[in-house]
């Protein structure tokens, strides 16, 4: 089936398409995978030695992570059936397992061969499986859904702009999704005819980003940072505290390839180097991006990429989850399966008597109906007609619920008067949180502390 070409859409004219009007759909496999896994990479995952990812990990290619810990801070439900849910999953590998002494909290499903003896189950009775392929995880479904979401968001008209100083300006409309498209392609000279936001202060400046001010969206809004990158080029994020003042559980960083005219390029690729001095918190969506992680800071939340390694291999950092960002899980809106469902029907008619058997199979969001004809005798005249119909809906949205775990940490109140989270109070004079900085400029170290061998983490003081 050929992909439907998406067209540019104006969010300001469809206020009920996102936000509070999102229908909750927990039945889609794509939505379930994107909600549950901390990291999803469609090709290789390679690290140099040590460190960990705090949540579950899915790798479509080769998995090489010596002395690494997977799903370090989660406690999976080992009683859950691997065919019915992801609740016991810690690691999924579709390609070769080529690692040394890797610990996994939760079930490990190794589908591509290799030395499974180097995967050590840290939470029995969860198991290491070598005969279940990738279980319920479907990398092709996850890839197509991620690319569709990225494309739909990229083609949406911005309804907000972000200025270098951190000022946010509402361009109008009632949509609960606030989209900003940043001038990050073609040496910060994207050749597009739309309102572009300035990425300098938040993504590229060596000074601290002190949080947004102005028309700061409310707590229940989903905030989208569209970040285009020229096909084949590299974007390097070097800012400090880029997520300060935003609701990490409702923030999406959409990195995507564009051509020289600034148009979305579905088959393009790019490299994303994260060297933010502190956490990049939220849903980092880069299904066509080669992810290169730096020596300081972290991804915190969900990270979806083409592949992953450390920029300064063999040295690198951990991948953090939403709890490290001060919230439970992603709770914003994602347009899962924007092409809708497709139904294909084929009917064959002959002049002879026959028995007709119809079988309908539903996989994820695609329904396929096939008709099988058992002919009793060879006809002298055959008339055959074939009708293929494609039914599409414009968008099917999903609002992800919280993880079923009862997290007691990271709960913050939203202060409508001050437009910020009030753990330590929003500081209007500073345009951001009144918390202490997470980066020690004098010593060049983060204040994030690891306890008990890295399995438990304290909260960074600057997080809400």
Automatic annotation (TrEMBL):
Residues 400-412 have a biased composition (Basic residues). Residues 36-321 form the Choice-of-anchor A domain. InterPro entries: Choice_anch_A. Residues 376-395 have a biased composition (Low complexity). Residues 413-464 have a biased composition (Basic and acidic residues). Residues 376-464 are annotated as: Disordered. This is Choice-of-anchor A domain-containing protein. The lineage of its organism: Eukaryota, Fungi, Fungi incertae sedis, Mucoromycota, Mucoromycotina.
């Amino acid at each position: 089936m050929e992909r439907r070409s998406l067209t540019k859409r104006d969010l300001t004219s469809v206020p009920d398409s996102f936000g509070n009007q999102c229908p909750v759909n927990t039945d889609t496999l794509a939505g379930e995978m994107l909600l549950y896994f901390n990291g999803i990479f469609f090709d290789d995952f390679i690290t140099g030695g040590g460190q960990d990812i705090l949540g579950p990990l899915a790798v479509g290619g080769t998995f090489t992570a010596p002395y690494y810990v997977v799903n370090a801070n989660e406690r999976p439900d080992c009683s859950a059936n691997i065919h019915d849910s992801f609740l016991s999953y810690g690691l999924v590998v579709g390609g070769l397992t080529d690692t040394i002494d890797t610990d996994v909290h939760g079930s490990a499903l190794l589908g591509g061969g290799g030395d499974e003896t180097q995967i050590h189950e840290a939470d029995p009775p969860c198991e290491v499986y070598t005969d279940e392929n990738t279980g319920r995880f479907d990398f092709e479904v996850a890839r197509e859904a991620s690319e569709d979401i990225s494309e739909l968001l990229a083609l949406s008209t911005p309804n907000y702009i972000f200025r270098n100083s951190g000022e946010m300006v509402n361009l109008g409309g009632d949509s609960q999704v606030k989209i900003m498209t940043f001038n990050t392609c073609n040496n910060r000279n994207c050749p597009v005819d739309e309102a572009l936001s300035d990425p300098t202060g938040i993504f590229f400046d060596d000074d601290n980003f002190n949080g947004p001010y102005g028309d700061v969206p409310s707590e229940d809004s989903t905030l989208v940072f569209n970040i285009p990158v020229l096909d084949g080029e590299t974007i390097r994020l070097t800012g400090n505290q880029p997520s300060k003042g935003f609701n990490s559980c409702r923030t999406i960083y959409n990195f995507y390839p564009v051509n020289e005219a600034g148009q979305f390029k579905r088959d393009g690729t790019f490299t994303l180097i994260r060297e933010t001095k502190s956490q990049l918190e939220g849903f980092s969506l880069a299904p066509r991006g080669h992810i290169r992680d730096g020596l300081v800071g972290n991804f915190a939340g969900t990270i979806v990429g083409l592949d992953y390694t450390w920029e300064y291999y063999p040295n690198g950092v951990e991948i953090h989850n939403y709890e490290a960002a001060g919230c439970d899980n992603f709770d914003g809106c994602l347009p899962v399966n924007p092409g809708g469902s497709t139904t294909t029907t084929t009917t064959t008619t002959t002049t002879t008597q026959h028995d007709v058997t119809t079988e309908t199979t539903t996989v994820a969001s695609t329904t396929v109906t096939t008709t099988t004809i058992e002919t009793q005798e060879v006809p002298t005249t055959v008339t055959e007609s074939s009708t293929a119909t494609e039914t599409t809906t414009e968008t099917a949205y999903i609002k992800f619920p919280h993880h079923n775990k009862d997290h007691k940490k990271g709960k913050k109140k939203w202060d409508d008067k001050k437009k910020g989270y009030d753990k330590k109070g929003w500081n209007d004079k500073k345009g951001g949180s009144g918390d202490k900085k997470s980066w020690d400029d004098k010593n060049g170290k983060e204040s994030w502390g690891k306890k008990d061998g890295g399995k438990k983490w304290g909260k960074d003081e600057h997080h809400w």
